[in-house]
Amino acid sequence: MRQLLSKSLLFLSLAAAGTGLSSCSKEGGGDGVVLFSVQDDIDLGARVAAQTDSTYRASGQLLDPKDPRNAAAYAALSTVVNKVLNSGKLDHRNDFVWDVKIIRDDKTLNAFASPGGHIYVFSGLIKFLDHEDELAGVLAHEIAHADRRHTSRQLQQQYGIGILLSVLLGENPNQLAQIAAGLGQLKFSRDFETEADSYSVIYLSGTDYACDGTAGFFIKSQAMGEASQPVFLSTHPNPGNRVQAIQAKAAELNCQNKSDNDTNLNKLKSLL
């Protein structure tokens, strides 16, 4: 805790002095610099995830992974997630906690990630998907936001480093609740979205899934019409060439024609 406090106060001093932006490097492309260390990502993510869990548990929407009645659903979901995580393509596979939780809400088609590798997926999104590689693709996209540290940078841009550090140090519980409540609505920049799309393909290229699975989700979503499109698309910029870019990356890696086994997705749907 003393090391974290000293480090965080150093970053706060840099930010206050206006010198931090020139001394910290960009990580993983995209826009914005990372003032937080990887350990700060882990600690901030743990706080945000605990608050998120508490909020959805209080509303009766969190599908508790510790409840034996949910073991089969989480086993099916974890099989999909672990294929992505163990693809050999992640930068922070061994740094972040990488857990995934289901929020029971059949009307919401969304998924989101906190810093440090906490992933949330709504039951509505799972039931909306037709194929398992689509689920793998959407999860890979969210994993990319955490692994490429987009979420930290976007939160930093939205709230400022001082507020995030106060949350990190446990000094601002009201702000923590606000950040947790808004995480699922966090709007990423086009650069972050383009990179997450690209890395969803890269991650899936190391699995037995068709690596353009995310494109299948977008195609079905766009066919619904703008008024009915999922929350996922309203919070993630969706330029017209997005599907084409995913498919082009898949063609480049020659990984688009793979398994069409939907066993885990079908099992999940039957259990939710």
TrEMBL record:
Species annotation: Hymenobacter fastidiosus
Peptidase M48 domain: residues covered: 76-248
Note describing how the cofactor binds: Binds 1 zinc ion per subunit.
Gene3D superfamilies in the record: Metalloproteases ('zincins'), catalytic domain (3.30.2010.10)
Protein name: M48 family metallopeptidase
UniProt keyword annotations, A-Z: Hydrolase, Metal-binding, Metalloprotease, Protease, Zinc
InterPro entries for this protein: Mito/Outer_Membr_Metalloprot, Peptidase_M48
PROSITE patterns: PROKAR_LIPOPROTEIN (PS51257)
Family from the record: Belongs to the peptidase M48 family.
Key word Zinc-finger present: no
Cofactor requirement: Zn(2+)
Ion transport is among the record's keywords: no
